[in-house]
Amino acid sequence: MKIMVQKFGGTSVADLACMRRVLDKVRVPLGQGFKVVAVLSARAGETNRLLALADEWSPAPDPAECDALISTGEQVSTALFAMLLKDAGIKARSVLAFQAGILTNAEYGKARIASIDQAALRAMFQEHDVLVAAGFQGVSPSGRISTLGRGGSDTSAVAIAAALKAEMCEIYTDVEGVFTADPNIVSGARKLERINYDEMLEMASMGAKVLEIRSVEFARKYSVPVHVRSTFTDAPGTLLIKEDKKMENALLSGVTQDKDQARITLRACPDRPGVSAGIFGPLAEAGITVDMIVQNPSRDGVTDVTFTVSRKDLKKALAEVEKLRARMEGMEVLHDAGVCKVSLVGVGMRNHSGIAAKAFEALAGENINILMISTSEIKISCLIEEKYIELAVRALHDAFELGHVQR
Amino acid sequence: MKIMVQKFGGTSVADLACMRRVLDKVRVPLGQGFKVVAVLSARAGETNRLLALADEWSPAPDPAECDALISTGEQVSTALFAMLLKDAGIKARSVLAFQAGILTNAEYGKARIASIDQAALRAMFQEHDVLVAAGFQGVSPSGRISTLGRGGSDTSAVAIAAALKAEMCEIYTDVEGVFTADPNIVSGARKLERINYDEMLEMASMGAKVLEIRSVEFARKYSVPVHVRSTFTDAPGTLLIKEDKKMENALLSGVTQDKDQARITLRACPDRPGVSAGIFGPLAEAGITVDMIVQNPSRDGVTDVTFTVSRKDLKKALAEVEKLRARMEGMEVLHDAGVCKVSLVGVGMRNHSGIAAKAFEALAGENINILMISTSEIKISCLIEEKYIELAVRALHDAFELGHVQR
Question: Which residue of A has its CA nearest to B82?
Answer without folding.
Answer: A65
